[in-house]
C-alpha cells in the first residue's frame, strides 16, 4: 500500500480518536475527513459534497456535530474526535443507533452515520431534547434517497422517550 510522502509543511498532529490517543504526521491543512479515511482507515465517515452542506462526513469534535470535510486536521490537535466507529461501546450500540435500527432509518446508508452522530450530539448535550431540537440538527443533513420520514420517526421516538423519562422522575 502506498502512503503519502512527507513534506516540509507536515506536522505531528495528536488527538483522541474514539477514546484512544492517535498521532499522524501530515499537512495540518488537510481535511480531517481525508486523514480519517486515508491514513487511519476509518471509512464510516463519508465524503459527500466536500463543502460541509450534506454532512455525510459528520464527526463529533468536542461533542459538537462537525463536518470533517471542512475541518483542517491541525485544528483537532489535542481535541477529542468521535466517529461512527467509536459511538457504540463494545457490542452495545449507542441508544441513538438502537433507535435508528429499530425504525429502519436508513436506505442506502450513505448519510446515516452523519445523521446518527448529529442526533447523538443533540442527545449528549440535552438528554431531554424535544423534537424541535432534533429537527434543527437534521436540517443540516442531506439524504439523497429521501429517507426523511424514517429519520423523523427516529427523532419523534427519541423525544417521546425523553418526555416519558422526565415524567417518571
Q: Shape from CA axes?
A: elongated
Q: Quick one: biggest sheet?
A: 5 strands, mixed
Output the strand order for the largest sheet. 2-1-5-3-4
Stretches where pLDDT is under 50 for at least 5 consecutive residues are: none
* Mean residue pLDDT: 92
Give me the secondary-structure category. Answer: alpha+beta
Query: Helix count?
Result: 5
Give me the CATH architecture of the largest domain, please.
Roll
What integer value in Å does the Rg equal? 17 Å
Assigned CATH superfamily of the largest domain: Beta-grasp domain
- % residues in beta strands: 5-15%
Q: Under the CATH scheme, which class of the largest domain?
A: Alpha Beta
The ordered string of helix (H) and strand (E) elements is EEHEEEHHHH
User: How many runs of DSSP E, i.e. beta strands?
Assistant: 5
**How helix-rich are the residues, as a percent range?**
25-40%
**Termini gap:** 55 Å
CATH topology of the largest domain: Ubiquitin-like (UB roll)
How many separate domains? 2
How is this structure best described in words?
The chain has 169 residues and is of the alpha+beta class. The chain folds into two domains: 11-86, Ubiquitin-like (UB roll) (Roll), CATH 3.10.20; 95-168, DNA polymerase, domain 1, CATH 1.10.150.120. The chain has five helices and five strands; from the N terminus they run E-E-H-E-E-E-H-H-H-H. The chain has helices at 32-39, 95-103, 112-125, 131-138, 148-168, and strands spanning 11-17, 20-26, 58-61, 64-67, 80-82. Strands 2-1-5-3-4 form a five-stranded mixed beta sheet, sandwiched between helices. Helix 2 crosses helix 5. The radius of gyration is 17 Å and the shape is elongated. The mean pLDDT is 92.
